[in-house]
Amino acid sequence: MAHTAHDDHIHTHNFNSQAHTYNERHAIGIQMLTEQLRARVDSIGFPANKTARLLDYACGTGVVSHALAPFVGSIVGIDISENMLSEYAKRAEQEDVEMRGYHGNLTGDDEAPATFASDLFFNFDIVAVGLGFHHFHNPTLAAQRLATRLKTGGKLLIIDNVSEDNGFSHESAEKLFKDAGVAQDFVFSVVDQELQIGRGPTPMMQRVFIAWGSKA
Known about the structure:
Layout: H1 5-25, H2 27-39, H3 41-44, E1 53-57, H4 63-68, E2 74-79, H5 82-92, E3 98-103, E4 124-130, H6 139-147, E5 150-161, H7 170-180, E6 184-190, E7 195-197, E8 204-206, E9 208-214
Parallel strand pairs: 1-2, 1-4, 2-3, 4-5
Antiparallel strand pairs: 5-9, 6-9, 7-8
Helix pairs in contact: 1-5, 6-7
């Protein structure tokens, strides 16, 4: 099924409205994800000496970028929400790494957006998507598009919900990686503690996984 401009409009509106309070509202969950990602850095296999180039797609306010900044040499963030990118820019000022955000879409109707045609947007060591894949209208197409941005041997890294309805199982995630050609040394790691979404007396709790695989 084709991705539609209407889908993008809805997502953009929702994320624009959440951007200014996102980090505060999800502070507990963000801290947990940061710790869980950093605990897996050695297993994922980042290049030594902080030389890795990271693409943080659907980067939002920069949760994944912040978590992985100590282990990479440069970061490119891309998002469809301009307000989220404004928050991303604020976070970038606080990081000790080159970190730049760009407005755009790699998974829509335009197979090869001119905005992202330069070498800056290719040959990444890591392409990461934090809690974004369950929002994508066509996750398989998204994975295939993102795989083209990786260098040979580069890794696709995703964090998402453990769910058949609004996320992925081990089997469906592995198929996603295989269909994109990034399933070499595939790992599907379920996070032990649930992710807290929001604050208040009864926040939502969600099981999440961290998965990665290499481009052959």
